[in-house]
Every structure is written in structure tokens, then in C-alpha cells.
Amino acid sequence: MIKGDFVAFEAVKSERGYIIKDESNMDIGKIQIVEYSKENRNCTFRLCIYKNDSEYIRDIIKSFIEMLFMNEDLYKINILVKEDRELQPFFDLNFHIEGVLTNNTMDASKYYNEILFGIDYDIYTNLKTISLLRLDGKNINLRILTANDANKLLNYYKDNKKHLENFEELRDETFYTIEKQKLIIRQQYVQLLNGNNIFFGIFKDENIIGIIQLYNIVWGIFKSATIGYSIDEKQQGKGYMKEAVNLILKYAFQTLKLHRVQAGTLVDNLKSKSVLKACGFKEIGISEKYLFINGSWQDHCIFYKLNMDL
């Protein structure tokens, strides 16, 4: 029997897998071997977790891949896991997301997406905490959110519920729950992998003071994206949003090599207009009934900025 700090693995040969048990000998999950190649030195397995706890998941992953690397002389290990599981332990152990398999597994008559994680032996032998995409500024930083940020994101939306309702879509009470915020973060991961949306938290002293994103990213001959953002009501007027916009523009133009970034703001949102103009955006004009904001179709001023280095 393979053992970790908190879990043990009991082989089930008839099913090419293992039952995962906790310290009380209770079943908390299972591992199903999907593919194993001695010749290519790789293994792919599906990890099903009943106890969605980061500490347990980290111990399961670490203990099992250690056994595979050491005892089976493998070079590459891939893990399939449902997208609604805690994902941070995979990043902590330096796994990389290699893809998303849509509607790939069924549970309780419902289809779910699966995340495909991978790690090779060279990375495993030098385990370090992965540095998720982060853009550092003088006063703030932008960072891709993880499940560990769900409480901070929820507090941001709760604290600014009244402030943001005039600028964003109508939201019911389920939006203001930890489950909904975790779902939003998982969905952002999928969109990040698909290359059509990059969602950052704006952090000041490890607190979320706003969000900013590049969305509707189009590649090919267009190479364009739209920028959207919001900031804590108490943090307005301090230059943080201007700094955040400039950081994401630098990333869009220098790293992604986009040609054009567009933004839209409500006609009477003078603060947002001021931010865009200060960051070098040019105003095109007014797009009538552009977005459905706070229960009605609202006119927006449209701005754009070009990458002059392309």
C-alpha cells in the first residue's frame, strides 16, 4: 500500500486503479489509470476526489507521482481532473495546464469539463511554487486569480455592490456567494487557456482593490481585444486604475503583440474617460445601446489605442 502524510492508496487491479483512503480509512477518492506506456515512459490517470480539500489533494498528487517517478521510471505524468476541484495544489507542485477537455466526464447524469495537467521528471526534481502570470507596477500588481483568492474576490464585490451596480450587469444574490466566485475563477481559467480572455485581480498589499481584463481577444489578421475594469470605490482618485491599464496595455502590446485594444465607457462616466485618455486612448464616438447595464441598454463612448511598434 502506498502512503502519504494524510492518505493511503489501495490497488484495485481489476479496475487498473487505486482507492484513496484518509487517516480514518474512509474512501475519499480514486485513481483510474487511463494510459500507461513503458516504452514512452509516460502515464495518464484520472483523479476523482470526493473530499475537495487542498491539503488532501496536494498530498494525493505528491505521494502518487513520487511513486510513479521513483518506482516506475517514468518521465512524463498527466492527470485529468474535473474543473470544479481545487486546482491550486497542482500549481503548487509545478504542474502545467496542458488543455481542457470539454464535456469529457459524467457525474450524476451531468457532463463536466476536465483539466489536463502535466509534469515531467526534470520539473519534478526541482519543485518550486509556480509563479502565475503577474504584472508588477510601482504601487499595485495584476495577478491571475486562483481558488485561494475566491474570498477576496467575494469581499470585493460585496463591499462595492452599490457602487458597481450602475456600471455592470444586474446580479442576483447567488453571485455574492463563495461558490459562485470559485466558479467564476474556474471559468476564467478555461477562457485563459482558450486564448480569448485574460482576467486579472488588481492587488494592493495583497488585497483585491479592483479587477481588469482583456476579453474578446481575436487573433489572425485582427489581433485585437477589449479592455474592461472596475475599482473599489474607496480606491478611486489615487492613480491605481491608470497604472493597471498601462500595465495591461504593455502586456497586450509587448507580450501578446496585439495590434489594437478597445474600451467602452458609459457616456457619463467621466472618471473612466479620464483614465483612458490619460493612457493614450483616442475616442471614436458613441455606440448607441451598446451594453445591457443595470437593467437597461446603455449608450457607451468607444475608445481605442493602437500598438505603434507593430
From TrEMBL:
<dbReference type="GO" id="GO:0008999">
    <property type="term" value="F:protein-N-terminal-alanine acetyltransferase activity"/>
</dbReference>
<dbReference type="InterPro" id="IPR016181">
    <property type="entry name" value="Acyl_CoA_acyltransferase"/>
</dbReference>
<keyword id="KW-0012">Acyltransferase</keyword>
<feature type="domain" description="N-acetyltransferase">
    <location>
        <begin position="140"/>
        <end position="309"/>
    </location>
</feature>
<protein>
    <submittedName>
        <fullName>Ribosomal-protein-alanine N-acetyltransferase</fullName>
    </submittedName>
</protein>
<keyword id="KW-0808">Transferase</keyword>
<dbReference type="Pfam" id="PF13302">
    <property type="entry name" value="Acetyltransf_3"/>
</dbReference>
<comment type="similarity">
    <text>Belongs to the acetyltransferase family. RimJ subfamily.</text>
</comment>
<dbReference type="GO" id="GO:0005737">
    <property type="term" value="C:cytoplasm"/>
</dbReference>
<dbReference type="InterPro" id="IPR051531">
    <property type="entry name" value="N-acetyltransferase"/>
</dbReference>
<dbReference type="InterPro" id="IPR000182">
    <property type="entry name" value="GNAT_dom"/>
</dbReference>
